[in-house]
Amino acid sequence: MARIVRGGLIQATLSMSSEQPIDKIKQSMIEKNLAMIEEAAAKGVQMLCLQELFYGPYFCAEQKTKWYSLVEQIPDGPTTRLMQEVAKKHSMVLVIPIYEEEITGVYYNTAAVIDADGKYLGKYRKHHIPHCDPGFWEKFYFKPGNLGFPVFKTAYADVGVYICYDRHFPEGARILGLNGAEIVFNPSATVAGLSEYLWKLEQPAHAVANGYFVGAINRVGTEAPWNIGEFYGQSYFCSPRGKIIAEACRDKDELVVADLNLDEILEVRNVWQFYRDRRPESYGAITNQDK
Q: pTM higher than 0.90, yes or no?
């Protein structure tokens, strides 16, 4: 019998102006996503990932310390605890991107991974932090991740996480495969005119090179007052063959659902023996700090 897991991705517009009180924005976005999680549960979704920094706007469009108030600890913060209850209620694995506080003044762009029984399994911290114009001032808000590239053994599949800008770097994507990932989720906030031409190239390429499924999530809409560009949605799942098997629209809230046949991973790796034929002893130049 085939080993099939029903996966889900949520892309969502900002529910109110970013100029509203921060606590109201946060509560509104949490409520919106909770409603979409209920929709996913009704459709039988077993593993679900939300978008990057899901409970607020993409505040990295400006550099203001007021947005530090969105941070929470993981797993002891209220959003992780809430999502543990939701995961247990629906027997659903959840990947929840949160603005994380390690200690006062030390913050990360992080995703918490929660198993289907509500158990907190661990977290991934975004490794590669962009800082560029227009409007991606992330080094003002986040330290680079320091927890490596963990893979989480969940009730349904072995899961890895890469966050947004990470997707431009093949090294971590390979390590996730070597660490046993069967599905890699990439929650993102990325805009048209900057990265759209890469959106359906890089992540299917990671899927092919590493023989796993990828769930790519992007925000939707424009976020005033910054208007750094259109978050173009088009969240999707792709297979280990690099084929997009389910895709959202570019301009509205949407839940993407796909049945992922994990047996396809073995089929693909038996044909394309990339892990057998790779030559790590000859790749030292990649990490040679003198170059």
A: yes
